[in-house]
Amino acid sequence: MTRAVEARAQVSCRLAAPGPDLAAHHRVRHQVFVTEQQIFVHGDRDDRDDDPATLHVLGLVDGEPAGTVRLYPLDDGPEPTRWQGDRLAVLAAHRTSGLGGPLVRFAVATAGALGGATMLAHVQQANERFFVRLGWTSLGNEDYVGRPHVRMEIALSAP
Ligand SMILES: CC(C)(COP(=O)(O)OP(=O)(O)OC[C@H]1O[C@@H](n2cnc3c(N)ncnc32)[C@H](O)[C@@H]1OP(=O)(O)O)[C@@H](O)C(=O)NCCC(=O)NCCS
User: Fold this and answer.
1) Which pTM does this prediction carry?
2) What is the DSSP letter of 98?
3) Residue 126 Cβ contacting ligand 1 at under 6 Å
4) Which of 19, 81, 97, 113 has its CA 20 to 30 A from that of 1?
5) Which is the closest atom of ligand 1 to the Cα of 36?
6) Which residue's CA is the closest to the ligand 1 atom numbered 28?
7) DSSP classification of residue 16
C-alpha cells in the first residue's frame, strides 16, 4: 500500500540585501498592504524605509519571496533598547505555509542580538491570538492607520 506524503514547504528568512532582495520585500508589502488590505492608497513606504537604522527582512517559501517584516530602534543612540516591528506580511497564496511565525521570531531574535530589551508592535486585532501564541503580550486596544489594532510587546534577549 502506498501512502501520499505531503511535502512541507521550506521557509527561510534573511535580512534583505540592497538590490533584488529589497525590491522583492517592497513588492510583497505593496501586494498585501496596498492591493489586498487597502490600508495605504498609493504605497506603504515611509521615512523609516530610508533610515539606515531600519532593517528589512525577506521571507521565502521554497526559495521564492513570500513575506516581509521590518524592524527599527525607537531610541536614538548607539545602544537602543526599544525596538518596533511592523510591515509583517505573507502573500495570500503562501499563508499557512508556516512563514509568518518564523518572520516574527526572526525580527525578535535580530533585535535581541543587537542589544534590544523590548519589541513593540501595532497588531491588527485579527492577529492578536497569532502574536500571543508567539509569546507576545497585549497592552491595550488602539486606533492605528485608521483601523482597530492592539498594542503588543515582547521581551528581547541576547542569543
Ligand atoms: C498574519 C500573517 C502574517 C500570518 O502569516 P502565516 O504565514 O499565515 O502564519 P503561519 O503559517 O506561520 O501561522 C502560524 C500559526 O498561527 C496560526 N495563525 C495564522 N494567522 C493567525 C491569526 N490571524 N490568528 C490566529 N492564528 C493564526 C496558523 O494557523 C498557524 O497555526 P499552527 O501552528 O497551529 O499551524 C498573514 O496572515 C498575513 O500576512 N496577513 C495579512 C497581513 C497582516 O495582517 N499582517 C499583520 C499585521 S499586524
Assistant:
1) 0.95
2) S
3) yes
4) 97
5) 41
6) 96
7) P
Locate 84 and state its grid cell.
518596533
Q: How many CB atoms lie within 10 A of CB 69?
A: 28
Amino acid identity of residue 57, one-letter, is V
In terms of DSSP H, where are the helices of the chain?
20-29, 47-50, 100-113, 128-133
Domains within the chain, CATH numbers bracketed:
11-155 (3.40.630.30)
Q: Which three cell numbers stand for residue 112?
A: 535581541
Q: How far is the CA of 78 from the centre of ligand 1 (A)?
A: 33
Q: Within 13 A of 67's CA, how many CA atoms are on the CB side?
A: 30
d(CA 90, CA 57): 12
For the Cβ of 144 lying below 6 angstroms from any atom of ligand 1, the answer is no
